[in-house]
Amino acid sequence: MLLGHLLHLNRIDSVIIENRSREYVIERVRAGVLEQGTVDLMIAMGVGERLKRQGLRHDGLYISFDGRRHHINMAELTGGSAITVYGQNEVVKDLIEARIETGRPLYFEVEEVSVDAVDSSQPQIRFLHEGTVHELGCDFIAGCDGFHGISRPSIPSGFLTNYERVYPFGWLGILAEAAPSSEELVYTYHERGFALFSMRSPKVTRLYFQVPPEEDIENWSDDAIWDEMLERMTTRDGWKPNVGLILQKSVTPMRSFVAAPMRFGNMFLAGDSAHIVPPTGAKGLNLAASDVLVLARALKEFYERGNTTCLDQYSDICLRRVWKAQRFSWWMTSSLHRFTDESPFDHQRQIADLDYLTSSRAAMTSLAEQYVGLPAEVSFQSAGL
Ligand SMILES: Cc1cc2nc3c(=O)[nH]c(=O)nc-3n(C[C@H](O)[C@H](O)[C@H](O)COP(=O)(O)OP(=O)(O)OC[C@H]3O[C@@H](n4cnc5c(N)ncnc54)[C@H](O)[C@@H]3O)c2cc1C
Fold first, then answer.
1. Catalytic: which of 62, 187, 189, 208?
2. Is 283 a catalytic residue?
3. Which of 194, 272, 276 to mutate to test the pocket of ligand 1 (most atoms within 8 A of CB)?
């Protein structure tokens, strides 16, 4: 959707197909932390009005361990950058409205999607919509169809190199009707495992804790979830999350994954179709946004000047950022979770790591500049904004 709007702003035609319904994608609760660059991008694209009004800007975050919360002032450490809490489904809602306003094609609930002749100059997409088979001849295909989509698996085996790390835990996450008791996110390292306090609005909190990866959500009553949240998050000064009605609960496994290169012929992979990060660093949605900024610049160069250099550089430029985000997400995950095979030495070292992180300005600056988002290699101007 983001790429479609960037292309529209550059007067480049596109057709967007989505296999879920409009209602489903607007209701789907996923990421909620936007890097400074993602916020700036949405505003520069003219789709940031509601984000500016309703997004919750956070200048800092807390790291909590040994019963104490330690504040890290990201804005002060990065010269004014911050993150904004605004649900991914709200971003999607704004982009759908913007797309519909352009009158450009957007199909929901498509079925039997397949791609063909991807390594030729006329790749094709075939899909079924409301009983009619559609065949699109394209110049390019953007494979923005997530980790379980069809784009990546359509690439002949052996062409891609896959890099993967599966973590020995998942996150049990809830959405609760409870006013946030902290204005900023609280990342907790506790004897019983990781926990995260975050929020979606002034009335809704989003909380998580570490569980075994195969944990069945049915094993957790709402009362048991709150007991565990409070046990892990309550600090010595008495701070704790407000308890409220649980609106949604689920367990998500943790995985790091990269498929390289992010291009096969005239199909370009972007976002989760090419890479997955564990959500600890809040990078998934932001990486998808930075990928399509690079792709929009490359397509603009191609259509305006017939220049293919930026298309050829697409994968390398994206992967440089992807790997830095992978490294950061892995580091945040490793620093804040308990591992089944850890030794008492590992546990003490982890506490020392967190002690150093929260007492050294250099260490806090390193976290802050990565959390708010490293600078983009591609300027908004070069992508036609
Ligand atoms: C359950 C869950 C929870 C998450 N929680 C967080 C979080 O808390 N924090 C965080 O930072 N990140 C989180 N993420 C990651 C973040 O949501 C993703 O990184 C982000 O959505 C990537 O955007 P994308 O556009 O690449 O993929 P997606 O948002 O997955 O979009 C791909 C779209 O393609 C559609 N699609 C799939 N197959 C087809 C097909 N064959 N034909 C047509 N359309 C198709 C899908 O329905 C989907 O709408 C979560 C992800 C999941 C799955």
1. 187
2. yes
3. 272
* pLDDT at residue 382, rounded to an integer: 97
The predicted pLDDT at position 350 comes to 96
pLDDT digits (tens, 9 = 90+) for 171-184: 999 999 999 999 99
Rounded distance, CA 132 to CA 128, Å?
A: 5
167 is a catalytic site residue? no
Which residues lie below 8 Å from residue 300, measured CB to CB, with a gap of 6+? Answer: 10, 12, 382, 383, 384
Question: Is the beta carbon of 30 within 6 A of some atom in ligand 1?
Answer: yes
**What are the two backbone dihedrals, phi and then psi, of residue 204, each rounded to the nearest 5 degrees?**
-125, 125
CA of 256 from ligand 1 middle (Å) equals 14
**Mean pLDDT computed over 219-240:** 98
**Ligand 1 pocket member 310 (CB < 6 A):** no
pTM of the model: 0.95
- Rounded CA separation 181/240 (Å): 7
Structure tokens at 366: 């390193």
pLDDT digits (tens, 9 = 90+) for 92-146: 999 999 999 999 999 999 999 999 999 999 999 999 999 999 999 999 999 999 9
Calculate mean pLDDT across residues 242-253: 96
163 is catalytic: no
Q: CB of 144 closer than 6 A to ligand 1?
A: yes
CA distances to 39, 90, 253 from 222, rounded to whole Å, are 34, 26, 20
Question: Residue whose CA is closest, atom 2 of ligand 1?
Answer: 30
The arithmetic mean of pLDDT across residues 203-222, rounded, is 96
Whose Cα sits closest to atom 15 in ligand 1?
Answer: 284
Sheet holding 161-177, edge to edge: 68-73, 60-65, 186-189, 195-201, 204-211, 161-177, 245-260, 275-276
Cis, bond preceding 261 (omega within 30 deg of 0): yes
Q: Which atom of ligand 1 is nearest to the CA of 17?
A: 43
Give the pLDDT confidence score for residue 379 in this predicted structure: 97
pLDDT, residue 103, reads 98
Which amino acid, one-letter code, is at 102? T
